[in-house]
Design brief:
Helix 9 links the parallel strand 7 and strand 8. It contains 17 helices and 13 strands. By secondary structure, it is α/β, with parallel strands linked by helices. The protein has two domains: 151 residues, Metalloproteases ("zincins"), catalytic domain (Collagenase (Catalytic Domain), 3-Layer(aba) Sandwich), CATH 3.40.390.30; 238 residues, TIM Barrel, CATH 3.20.20.
């Protein structure tokens, strides 16, 4: 059982993760009753699918997907070739059309390609929505069922929301008093449905301080994610504190917030040593990186358990064209990391408008969000601000 993919379009522009699509195609073959069969999938541009549509269906326009079964009869689904392989047929998908449809629907390109793959595969198995309205409804219902099942086959079925409470400490420190307390804020966030609490213990202690992390370690009921630079003293605190995980981030004294991802490829030895020490203490390590292939590969090479993809450029994009480009970089990096066996989180700059599309990526386990939620809490209260964001994440996660 295999799916043979051929990419005959601008793969640099579309950044297609063939391995991910192959994995999904194999799952679909198993769950549609054809586990012993092979299928060929050709990814093309609009020009090629328009030519195929014109020559084989007498329709002179581009379409999203075409299917060509090897056996057009009713006796069997497939044809057995000379070496005994059962071939279902060919599926041709226009990536250009799929990309336009994905943008219109507000889903990832790979989500749309998966739906078209499902649609094409059902055609190869004899379903045809053009024969009757009844069959069209049956085919539609089966497509939705398969997509839901494929979505639920993920080890982590829903993207989780972790809340960064650093900005609560920033407000407290502005007056040099004890309120508002980030420890109390963390408790409210958990009661409102947060799956974890994130704090950044900086070298200069500009917001979260040692007292905060000690109390948070004792009181957090979900998971504590300690963000930190690979600073010797902070490393010792982390080893003593034993948070549920640490996220290594770049740290500059003059920056207002973390401005970009770690250059993992440029400091492999240093990061590998830190990761090794954390692993020996039973603490998994995430590396905060820009969504770039070389950084993903470097994170895997140094032994990280997670990567957290920097979403700042996506959130701060000047226009929709740039935002779409940044989104595709995040989606591609997440899928590449997932295929390598890394667990994938994301965060930085996400708000109530930009979060949903990132949360819908099936490769991402958790989003770390702080400023937008604390800012919203000024107007509606922290409990409601967290619940509103959690609903956005939960609803988006159900869109595979």
């Amino acid at each position: 059982m295999s799916a043979h993919f051929t990419v005959n379009c601008d793969s640099d522009h579309f950044r297609i993760n063939v391995k991910l699509l192959q994995r999904r195609a194999r799952w679909l073959l198993r769950h549609t009753g054809t586990p012993g069969h092979d299928v060929s999938v050709l990814l093309v541009d609009d020009e090629e699918i328009r030519w195929l549509n014109s020559n084989y269906r007498n329709k002179s326009e581009a379409t999203n997907v075409l299917s060509f079964p090897l056996n057009e009869g009713n006796e069997a689904l497939s044809v057995v070739d000379s070496i005994g392989v059962k071939e279902l047929g060919d599926i041709i998908i226009s990536v250009e059309t799929a990309e336009r449809e994905a943008e219109k629907l507000g889903v990832s390109l790979h989500h749309r390609l998966t739906w078209l793959l499902t649609h094409g595969l059902l055609h190869l198995q004899g379903y045809d929505h053009e024969r009757s309205e009844k069959e069209a409804l049956e085919m539609w219902d089966l497509e939705q069922k398969l997509i839901r099942q494929l979505h639920n086959s993920r080890s982590n079925q829903m993207t989780q929301l972790a809340i960064n409470v650093d900005h609560v400490a920033t407000v407290r420190n502005a007056r040099g008093i004890t309120e508002p307390d980030p420890v109390a804020a963390a408790a409210i966030c958990e009661l409102a449905g947060a799956a974890g609490i994130v704090v950044h213990l900086r070298e200069d202690r500009r917001h979260i301080n040692d007292r905060d992390v000690r109390l948070l370690r004792e009181t957090i009921k979900t998971r504590m994610n300690l963000e930190m630079g690979a600073n010797k003293k902070i490393i010792e605190i982390a080893l003593d504190l034993k948070p549920d995980m640490v996220t290594l981030v770049p740290e500059k004294r003059q920056e207002l917030t973390t401005e970009g991802g770690l250059n993992v490829s440029g400091q492999k030895k240093k990061l590998a040593r830190t990761i090794s020490r954390m692993r020996k203490a039973g603490i998994p390590v995430s590396l905060f990186i820009d969504p770039e292939a070389k950084q993903v590969k470097a994170a895997h090479a140094v032994g990280a358990t997670y990567v957290e993809l920097h979403t700042g450029r996506y959130c701060d994009a000047a226009n929709e064209t740039v935002r779409e480009e940044e989104y595709q970089l995040i989606a591609s990096a997440a899928e590449e990391a997932y295929q390598m066996g890394l667990r994938v989180n994301a965060g930085h700059g996400l708000d109530y408008q930009t979060t949903a599309r990132i949360a819908a990526l099936d490769t991402i386990e958790e989003l770390s969000i702080g400023h937008a939620i604390i800012a919203r809490a000024v107007f509606v209260g922290l409990d409601q601000a967290v619940r509103e964001m959690r609903k956005i994440v939960r609803d988006a996660s159900m869109i595979f």
